[in-house]
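Review this chain:
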Amino acid sequence: MTATVAVTARGAARWRAGHPWIYRTDVSPTRAPAGVVRVTAGSGRFLGQALLSPASEIRLRFLTREDAALGPDWWAGRIASALARRSGLSGRTSAFRVVHGEGDGLPSLVIDRYGDYVVAQLLSAGLEAHRADVLEAIGTVLAPKAVLLRNDASVRRHERLPLAIEDAASRVPDEIEVFEDGIRFFVFPRTGQKTGAFLDQRDNRVRLQGLAAGRALDVFTYQGLFALHMARRASTVLAVDSSAAALEAARRNGGLNSGSPVEWREGNAFDLLRALERDGQRFDTIVLDPPAFAKTRSAIPRALAGYKEINLRAMRLLAPGGTLFTASCSFHVGRELFLRMLAEAAADSGRSIVLCEITGQAADHPELVTVPETGYLKGAFLVARD
């Protein structure tokens, strides 16, 4: 029998307002094990069913307002609905996110598809308790050749869960070749960032492919996807990263694609941008896609200083009429802070910088307006007027 857990009036109001997370302080003490529980208000009124994580500050993650058994068929239905919302990606890419956690009504579950294979993450104790049902549902809906669990995300520590990378159904290869809007590249599901690739920047990469021109610069290139998209139109591309291993993967990706040649250069982004400015270099197209500078709230001031530094240098490197795409994947640096930083960088650059477009993560990473945690990626397309 499914256990029942009561929440405070504040917890109930939070769920009614559209946020699925209920924190420890708003949940009555319970000895129920991790997994699906029925949730009631203090009055005993049924509110819905949620995933219970007994050791986490996020004690409950609401799944549904239904009062029915949540077996493999229920999970399969949710995954199938999420897949249907991605139907527009058919033919455009073989690498996309099928389930984006709370954004698809499946809190703490991430499912990415890479060709015939699936890489998934179970990020809460409540979800981990239903691993078998989730894996059965993935098999039913997606019918992959194999499933890899990238359960090495640090957030699992908050749930008192072990960190591991394990094959759940057959073996996923160490590398998988996929395509994205005319670009081919390798995904490394066991060793790559996230589940093997940065899928959240797809729409911005494709947008930039249509805008790239002249000399192009890709800073923090990682495995070269922005650079390869720009190489379809730019005359030259310089792509920089501090990781020799990432650049080796980028070179291999370059070998899969035709277009302008890319110069892959190992180096520190901050030092390189300063050196290029000292040398009087100018670029017609620049991309800044750094890693998260602020992984905690306390890191915000230092992160903003870092973001301002690289954006200031990039603005000074832009040729007149040139385009800069700049991004931040730090959740703690919200859109308002991000745009304020860009304004300060523009003011200090001495250039006239026009904001053309504000962007976010790709459409297969849906952001719920009532759940700000589902949105983390901010991007901006800027043009130098002079």
